[in-house]
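Hey, I was hoping to borrow your eyes for a little while. A protein chain has come my way and I'm curious about its shape. Take your time with it, there's no hurry, and the full record follows here:
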Amino acid sequence: MANEVIVTADSLKRRQRLGRIVKTTLLILLLSLIVLYIILQVIYNEGKFTVTLDPNQQLRSGLAMYESLNDPTPKRKLYANSIKFMDNISIKWLPDNLKDEDGGSHNGENYIAYTFYLENQGTEVINYWYKVVTDDVIKNVDEAVRIEIYRNDESKIYAKGSSTTGEAEEGTTKFRTDEDGTIILEQRQNFNPGDVDKYTIVVWIEGDDPECTNALLGGEIKMHMDITEEHVNQ
């Protein structure tokens, strides 16, 4: 009889120890899920599009970046506001005056629009490069994404090549396929002292793209723009 009591007590201790292990494991898993959720929130819900200037660039050349002509304080990084939901639209639905906005975010229904400025505040002629890089793509939504870049009054539209022919979609310049995720790379030459370039970036999902299907529902894309420069020897 005494042996039975001892066995029962040991079993109870084991059950209690197992219960503590299970509770601890569940708590760790819960904390991990919370951390993962926070990370995903930061990645996918904050700063869908950023513009970054080489931190040493202003010191070397006087190239400055800012968001508004009313406040030309140079910034190293600019943030465009995201939108919670983006349905497919036609380019024909976009306003005609997007490039006329003063600066900053001016998103509309189902598109992102952001305007900023680059100024040569130095004394040398500059060539600079700008590139757009994709950081992450979910459910291949980039198949139907369009990126329009206005530099001053000139516009150029970029898109991923056709999945069937590999050629550029009509009216667009085909995305690059660089290993680092660069999809757009352009050079601005002969940027003279005192010159100001105005940029407006517009992003939308083109409903007339053959790849714009229900398979893209729930997709997301995160990207950024980098600006670097080189001097021109004269």
About this structure: The chain has two domains: 1-46, 48-231.
